[in-house]
Design a protein that fits this description.
2 copies of one chain form a homodimer. The first copy, chain A, is of the alpha/beta class and 357 residues long. Chain A contains 11 helices and 12 strands. Chain A folds into 2 domains: 66-164 and 300-325, Response regulator (Rossmann fold, 3-Layer(aba) Sandwich); 167-297 and 326-353, Rossmann fold (3-Layer(aba) Sandwich), CATH 3.40.50. Chains A and B meet through helix 4, helix 5, strand 2 and helix 10 of A and helix 4, helix 5, strand 2 and helix 10 of B. Chain A binds a DNA duplex (16 and 16 nucleotides) through helix 2 and helix 4.
Chain lengths: 357, 357
DNA sequence: CTGTTAGCGCCTTCAT
DNA sequence: ATGAAGGCGCTAACAG
């Protein structure tokens, strides 16, 4: 079973099967009925030559690429893993390919990478903060199908967006801290500036304070940037400056973990001295000590839905303008609770997953 | 600044710049000298039309795709994140695109996904265990450039492979358990069957036992499969069966964490009652309680080198047959040591990263 | 049901 | 330094 030519084309297959190239094309694409024996003959020929249709050629002919692009700031951290997994699943289910591209840390970029430009992808999944609204608008104007993840559409453009409910869950967490644990001095580790999740999480925080007549203290609202080290430094500084607090609400779990470290480094105990709560429910959050009270963000699901919406948009031109996935508070030990109750995280994470009961 | 046509082609640019399409092509590819004013005129035209060359067309014309494929079993877990990050970095640096594809859990597959076939990618990064040696051989025979990750080439094929040193580090860990912590009954949580890393890690384990005249007890070598739940069950069963052991060497950190859970569930203390060591040094491993003694696997670096080798292979036809990246033991608390010493993990993970000192 | 014939958009000799 | 023309491999009318 030697190779005839290193790269057989549809012509080679046609010749070998004794048919025309259109017929071969037809059996490849099952676009119109073909007689059975011809089908088998062609398929045999394809196998014998180990023929693989060249994507570039069919893409050119059909003016479709059958692939989705994913635009991320960078690949890093536990957050993107479930996102990617969700996207990949749907992409595979629908016979698409996935082109991954990172734009790099440097804030929102004003141009999309060439490889993900209009012609190299049928549609683009864009994660929050990687593109400027102008760049998004331009891409949209050029006819590229887009779905925004964790970022809403620029005004009047109605680009489909998939994100999660932030405010109510944040409110619930802070309320829990106030009512269950009698916290009154709750520090806020903010997320990234100009980030929508960050904004709504802070709103939830503020509204909870307001409801229980806890004054908002600017000295307690410090940078977290969704990053462990940033949060660590912020908390260390508060400690050093003598800012008093009995709880910390971090805009995400990475920051919560950074806070935990800063607290430990200063000899504080969690939750005995300070209660901590985060947001996202990362894989790791159930495993650390103490297990983190947080909000479960359905990130895998976000990935799935975003990819589904994009594919639907490509196929039908229609998509839901906004998908808001529900979140749920996950009470574990870092806030001071002694037993878990209610939702405890993604399927594979259950109560027994936490090391310290 | 309206769009002229929704999808401008090289012809539109040529017309607008008052030149021929060949000239436009030349300024795009900077393949031969072009007079300065023509260059500026053409570039202006491209910008005005927001022209993006269609990848399919140039791929077809050049018979290159300028993209790499990455074939994984599935996207999941903390292990792949640094791998992907390393690959992505190099891919971007070299102006390639990255096509990601998962083959699914079902053991080694005998065919590669169509999308990553011969014609859709200039080269393929294949992770251990996703393809059968036959499938690899066939892909190689068809002229596809390949680099294998964590899996060596089928005999006589000399397909470049990038992997890590397993045996010496495993030996060192087990030796540490024996000499420093006086362990004699060391359980082994095996990795995946037919997996090379798994094999060499077990060899390291066995040789260490041998060196110190500790008999190998088959009852202590149980499945781990690189999975938390599998390891958890194995350890639970040993406990239940009354198999005695004073230490566990897990073929990877996921399994080590599963072991930890099983031990806690049974009321055992780590490291007081049982010492634990793992392999990989996942992001999470420094953060759990107790911080995990393990072997640092340079996974990001593996990703980088693999991508580099593949690109070199594509460009020059040459690549190093085998890259064996060094590993290093990371002593933390789960083995019974009270302070860290020596290497403590990836750059961003240092001693203060562990919650319990 | 099957064969013939144009392109798809770009690169690449070959002339000029 | 620039233009003209052929072809990359495939799909999609259009005829039969």
């Amino acid at each position: 079973m030697r190779q005839m030519s290193p790269n057989p084309t549809i012509h080679d297959v046609a010749k070998r099967a004794g048919v025309s190239i259109s017929t071969v094309s037809r059996v490849i694409n099952r676009t119109v009925p073909v007689s059975d024996d011809v089908v088998t003959r062609v398929e045999a020929a394809m196998k014998e030559l180990s023929y693989v249709p060249r994507a570039a050629a069919r893409n050119l002919a059909t003016r479709k690429t059958n692939s989705l692009g994913l635009l991320l700031a960078e690949i890093t951290g536990d957050f993107f893993d479930p996102l990617l997994a969700g996207i990949e699943t749907v992409v595979v289910e629908n016979g698409f390919d996935l082109l991954i591209s990172t734009a790099g840390r440097g804030g929102p970029h004003d141009e999309l990478p060439r490889s993900l430009g209009n012609h190299n992808t049928d549609g683009l999944l864009v994660f929050a903060g990687v593109l400027t609204p102008e760049a998004i608008a331009r891409a949209h104007a050029s006819g590229l199908k887009l779905v925004l993840i964790h970022q809403s559409s620029p005004p009047d453009l109605d680009i489909p967006c998939v994100t999660i409910e932030n405010k109510a869950a944040s409110f619930a967490v802070v309320e829990h801290l106030i009512t269950e644990h009698k916290c009154r001095r709750i520090a806020l580790l903010r997320g990234l500036p100009h980030n929508e999740d960050s904004h709504w999480r802070e709103m939830g925080y503020r509204e909870a304070l307001e409801k229980y007549d806890v004054p908002f203290d600017p000295a307690l609202a410090v940078p977290g940037d969704y990053k462990r080290v940033v949060a660590q430094k912020s908390v260390a500084r508060m400690l050093q400056d003598g800012v008093e607090f009995d709880a910390i609400f971090a805009a995400d779990d990475e920051a919560a973990i950074g806070a935990l470290q800063a607290l430990y480094a200063a000899g504080k105990r969690v939750p005995e001295d300070v209660s901590i709560a985060g947001f996202d429910d990362l894989h790791i959050s159930a495993l650390i000590n103490p297990a983190l009270t947080t909000v479960h963000a359905p990130t895998y699901e976000v990935g799935r839905v975003a990819a589904q919406q994009l594919i639907r948009s490509i196929r039908t031109g229609q998509a839901d303008p906004l998908t808001l996935l529900p979140t749920e508070i996950v009470v574990r030990r870092s806030c001071g609770c002694h037993n878990h109750n209610g939702y405890t995280g993604a399927p594979e994470i259950n109560a027994s997953d936490t090391f310290i009961q």
